[in-house]
Amino acid sequence: MNMQTYADYLVNWLENQRKTLYKMDGYVLGVSGGVDSAVCAYLLARTGTPVHCYMLPAAVSSETDLTDANAVLDGCGLSGEVISIEPMYQAVMTSVASALHPDPERVKVLHGNVMARLRMVTLFTLAQSYRAVVVGTDNLAESYTGYFTKFGDGAADVLPLARLRKEQVLALAEVLGVPSQIIYKAPSAGLWEGQTDEDELGVNYTVLDTFLRGEKVSKAAQKRIAFWHNRSHHKRMLPPMPEETPNQ
């Protein structure tokens, strides 16, 4: 199906999940200023159901991202609220500082993951208060490479973009009318200053999309993609449980 038809399909799919599976009253969405959350916002705006949008910056967050997040909300007709996660982040890191492993190589990613998990806690808390479904923004490339924080941005009730390569997310964004400056900005999880998805992964989304289409990529790219995919297997599965039970 074409992207306009797929957009209609996703709107209906979201409403079906909300009404039938979850039996909830609305949606909660974290709006980052990136294209993935923008696409989700534009889809949710079409449902006609209450949508509660939140921008959850930390001290390292870019002012540009906040400006872009507001542009998204203005463009799709939704309202949003800014809730800083910085006080929670400082409280957590201060509390655990003396107990952390001393290896400095772990610190940057660890701090970024804490931010992602605090955003998850915030969104689920708000969703519970409004009887709402938490909408995740992960796309197929992120899912395949494990480019999300376990129990952080990977935690959601629904993942409407999970079948879409990055190029398809961009195409859907154009169909929905997402502002061009958001569609073409460098993708970033905003976990630390200057961080971008492609720098961290070591492979760009164009190559990832080529691979996900089943087409040929360089051996170096294959190796890099396989590294991330194999390393992140645990993120895409439920926690293992013993197969056997006791007899007594």
Automatic annotation (TrEMBL):
<feature type="binding site">
    <location>
        <position position="157"/>
    </location>
    <ligand>
        <name>deamido-NAD(+)</name>
    </ligand>
</feature>
<dbReference type="InterPro" id="IPR014729">
    <property type="entry name" value="Rossmann-like_a/b/a_fold"/>
</dbReference>
<dbReference type="Pfam" id="PF02540">
    <property type="entry name" value="NAD_synthase"/>
</dbReference>
<comment type="similarity">
    <text>Belongs to the NAD synthetase family.</text>
</comment>
<dbReference type="InterPro" id="IPR022310">
    <property type="entry name" value="NAD/GMP_synthase"/>
</dbReference>
<feature type="binding site">
    <location>
        <position position="137"/>
    </location>
    <ligand>
        <name>ATP</name>
    </ligand>
</feature>
<keyword id="KW-0460">Magnesium</keyword>
<dbReference type="InterPro" id="IPR003694">
    <property type="entry name" value="NAD_synthase"/>
</dbReference>
<feature type="binding site">
    <location>
        <position position="188"/>
    </location>
    <ligand>
        <name>ATP</name>
    </ligand>
</feature>
<protein>
    <recommendedName>
        <fullName>NH(3)-dependent NAD(+) synthetase</fullName>
        <ecNumber>6.3.1.5</ecNumber>
    </recommendedName>
</protein>
<dbReference type="GO" id="GO:0003952">
    <property type="term" value="F:NAD+ synthase (glutamine-hydrolyzing) activity"/>
</dbReference>
<keyword id="KW-0436">Ligase</keyword>
<feature type="binding site">
    <location>
        <position position="166"/>
    </location>
    <ligand>
        <name>ATP</name>
    </ligand>
</feature>
<feature type="binding site" description="in other chain">
    <location>
        <begin position="234"/>
        <end position="235"/>
    </location>
    <ligand>
        <name>deamido-NAD(+)</name>
    </ligand>
</feature>
<keyword id="KW-0520">NAD</keyword>
<feature type="binding site">
    <location>
        <position position="36"/>
    </location>
    <ligand>
        <name>Mg(2+)</name>
    </ligand>
</feature>
<feature type="binding site">
    <location>
        <position position="142"/>
    </location>
    <ligand>
        <name>Mg(2+)</name>
    </ligand>
</feature>
<feature type="binding site">
    <location>
        <begin position="30"/>
        <end position="37"/>
    </location>
    <ligand>
        <name>ATP</name>
    </ligand>
</feature>
<dbReference type="GO" id="GO:0004359">
    <property type="term" value="F:glutaminase activity"/>
</dbReference>
<keyword id="KW-0547">Nucleotide-binding</keyword>
<comment type="function">
    <text>Catalyzes the ATP-dependent amidation of deamido-NAD to form NAD. Uses ammonia as a nitrogen source.</text>
</comment>
<dbReference type="GO" id="GO:0005737">
    <property type="term" value="C:cytoplasm"/>
</dbReference>
<dbReference type="GO" id="GO:0009435">
    <property type="term" value="P:NAD+ biosynthetic process"/>
</dbReference>
<dbReference type="InterPro" id="IPR022926">
    <property type="entry name" value="NH(3)-dep_NAD(+)_synth"/>
</dbReference>
<comment type="subunit">
    <text>Homodimer.</text>
</comment>
<keyword id="KW-0479">Metal-binding</keyword>
<dbReference type="GO" id="GO:0046872">
    <property type="term" value="F:metal ion binding"/>
</dbReference>
<feature type="binding site" description="in other chain">
    <location>
        <position position="150"/>
    </location>
    <ligand>
        <name>deamido-NAD(+)</name>
    </ligand>
</feature>
<keyword id="KW-0067">ATP-binding</keyword>
<comment type="pathway">
    <text>Cofactor biosynthesis; NAD(+) biosynthesis; NAD(+) from deamido-NAD(+) (ammonia route): step 1/1.</text>
</comment>
<dbReference type="GO" id="GO:0008795">
    <property type="term" value="F:NAD+ synthase activity"/>
</dbReference>
<feature type="binding site" description="in other chain">
    <location>
        <position position="117"/>
    </location>
    <ligand>
        <name>deamido-NAD(+)</name>
    </ligand>
</feature>
<feature type="domain" description="NAD/GMP synthase">
    <location>
        <begin position="9"/>
        <end position="239"/>
    </location>
</feature>
<dbReference type="GO" id="GO:0005524">
    <property type="term" value="F:ATP binding"/>
</dbReference>
